Amino acid sequence: SLTKFADVILNSFTPILVNEAITAEEECLEPRADEQIIVSESLGFCLLLPETYIQETVDDSSTTFQSGSGVDADHPQLVVEVTDAGSQTAQMLTDDLLREKNELTGQPNMVTRYTIGNGNILATMVDGATGHESERLLLFDHDGRRYQLAFTPYAPAQPELAGAMAELVTLVTQSFRFLP
To answer: What's the pTM?
Structure first.
């Protein structure tokens, strides 16, 4: 009967208490065997990276992730910078970068959209923007903060890194979460 079916469905749900705080352990994804979890409480995020990557904190608003030593040019690197968004949104900054590149080069801009943080935030990836020619910049805002993720090196002249770069971008964009 329909009533019995509805009871089975309703009884299969797990209640979640709304006033319980979500912890970083519950929000962040579990790493696979060849990955590691990175949790930055001060910058408000967690993400997964290949296990060979090491973290170097640059300052209170920026951290760098690189494979092996800092002189390793055979692997892509990631720099995460978190600043006060102020009055300029990430979309406004993206528009400025694209306009500058178009004015200087007259070339079309490569722009990719990603969803970040469990699909709650729309982010924009800009490849090789003016002043950032060797980077792929992923820009988005969250809770009044601007997140700028720079993937380097972005250089079409280095096709041997294209696969590794694509893997890093995929891993980061799929695993990036905001901490509660």
So the answer is: 0.76
